[in-house]
Design brief:
heterodimer, A: Rossmann fold, 4 strands, B: 667 residues, alpha/beta, Rossmann fold, FAD/NAD(P)-binding domain, 5-stranded parallel beta sheet
Amino acid sequence: MSEDFEPKIVAFVCNWCTYLAADLAGTNRLEYPPNVRILRLPCTGRVDFNLIIKALEMGADAVVVSGCHPGDCHYTAGNYHARRRWILFRELLETMGIETNRIFFSWISAAESKKWQHMITEITDQIREMGPYTAYHEISEATA
Amino acid sequence: MGRIGVFICWCGENIARAFDMDELTEAVAEIPGVRCAIHYKYMCSEPGQALIREKIRSEKLEAVVVASCSPHMHLKTFRAAAAAAGLNPYLVEMANIREQCSWVHEPYEDETVAKAVSIIRMTVHKVLRNRALEPIRVPLTKRALVVGGGVAGIQASLDLADSGYEVVLVEREPSIGGKMAGLSETFPTLDCSQCILTPRMVEVGQHPNIRLYTYSEVESVEGFVGNFNITIRQKARYVDIEKCTGCLECWNRCPSREAPSEFDYGLTKRKAIYVPFPQAVPARPIIDLNSCAKFLRNECGTCLKVCQANAINFDDQDMLVTEQVGAIVVATGYRMYDIGREQENAKYAGYGEYGYGQYRDVIDSLQFERLLSASGPTGGEVKRPSDGAVPKKVVFIACVGSRDNAKGIPYCSKICCMYTAKHTMLYKHKVHDGQAHVFYMDIRAGGKGYEEFVRRAIEKDGARYHRGRVSKITEENGKLIVRGADTLAGAPVTIEADLVVLAAAMRPATGVLELAQKIKLGYDEFGFLSESHPKLRPVETNTAGVYICGACHAPKDIPEAVAQASAAAGKVQVLFSKGELTREPEVASVNEQTCAACFACVRTCPYLAIDKAEIRDRQGNLRKMTARVNPSLCMGCGTCVAVCPSKSVDLEGFSEEQIYEMVNGLI
């Protein structure tokens, strides 16, 4: 892979847990690669998985979905809905030929700033290794 | 819309040390739709806010992005500043370039700068599609329903009534007072339970702001916060409590005395027409049709003949009444684990080996409370139920059910350690030559003066504590043979007791699940009602406008139940302190034209905020069904948006279009 490839990672995070973990990482000055772009949503329950495909289509090299731990959802159960949808969606993606190892699903509470830092660092390294995501356009061209 | 002002904050050095602020601002000014981009040292300071206000006016800005810290820090600040300059506050958004950029990435690196620009671009894309919104206003009925007239419900009702709000108090039993009215003395002060409770009961009965429904149940609950419609079933009492003077001539003359007394937990018999206990509120009788000869055999009718007030009505029927309230406090309390009897649920195993219900001198703690009580069946003398003899040796068994997974209850019932210590003490004070034995697992005496209280029971009043469980109780020659283990001594223990008292686990009151379903409350696997947040919202529930207090939430003692009841009343007062309710307008809405009425959203919504609605034409014919969001209940999580197969639901502030454009802006 090219040495100067910098992946673009889109993170859909919930307003109440993971967004606050990312804020806390800032307060604690926990350094991590700037490749991640955070998009704040009220809840991971809001993540329609078309969004993930859209992000890949628009040029993201990886997508992160992160919200409250099971049982901690600010809206009671949104994260369970997200998890249930993700389990189904993953199968669909595989059928479509989209690499699921570019999509990351995690629970990060408002206190887990270190977990956020480590996760983003690892994902960035991993995607740097994997190289840019071009398969989406190859697939859509092949099926056009 | 294309007149957006972007205000980039230095945050002193916090942001400015990572970027060349002039270059960053120039790059931002290039973003389509941006009218002006300005940087300043402290945007949140008064001069910073003045700068924003001035630019809104002079540049006729249609929306504002403040690129600085987290929106959790200052979004309210900047929205208020914009509102002061006449811009709708929902047209202000923040780009978080401090916590999520300058603080965590290498300063001046290309990637860091590119990230800051893309965060701002994303926010510009969002705010371009924001709509001016007004807070949702919901009318508010400033009356409260309290369900349950035990000590928690009494406290909540009086707090609310004393602060000037009308209270509708619904109690299932013929009198308020709950479990506490039947207790002897309370730990750790040993003050008489009735002496402290009954004046509060009288206050409830006489309070001009409290409408009391006894022998009544909540039939249905409709509506939402601020606007609940409650239907109450007033069960037929066969005595008109308005006409009745409380002379109790009917009770004196009633020939039937066969029914076990509910108030004395079956230790005595009561008549067919009865007042549950002398201090009952209301102090009016009720006819039990299961033991009244009039109802059983159409005989007697003595009460009808002797009543001077014409208050007896054998044709009485259940009545449904409706009440409008704005808030609900649930205080339905607890009941005791059925120790030996048949369990209604196979999960609970019972304790057949203890012979409860088989040996008359094996009783539970609430029955022992009655034996100790001056108003009890023995006038406060400790006499055992079988032959009325004074028991010289009493065995108390703690954790009967509690902390026993095999019996279906893993939790600690919390109050048993304390009341068992109290029982040994009160017993010793009444039977000086008696000996109390306690079998326990651990002594849990956390609370003000609690540990000292237990030590007093052991050291001063000589209760003998055995750490271990009892395996079996049998009866031989009028003695109860209690076989257990003392694990500290490492030896089996056999005690020939005259009386055995079982400290059974606390369980939620019967019928609470049906009530929870009516009010739409969550509950745990044991049926205890769920609070909204265990630390920060302990008396609130996930249904707006509904609060819980007392033992319906978890086992707790009187001080805790009372504190929680006052907390719940306080929360209702906060709710009622405004003229009307205002809510954040960032809620979901349904496009009723495209809605296919699959109702996936209705099933998904955690707040039950989406209803099935009908669309009818002018002739009243049904055109179609649609989902419809009640904005008074929607909390704006957006789960419905993600599940809608026809993309007919959208969330204000996080619409499909907005999020796609935000992703576009990010990449």
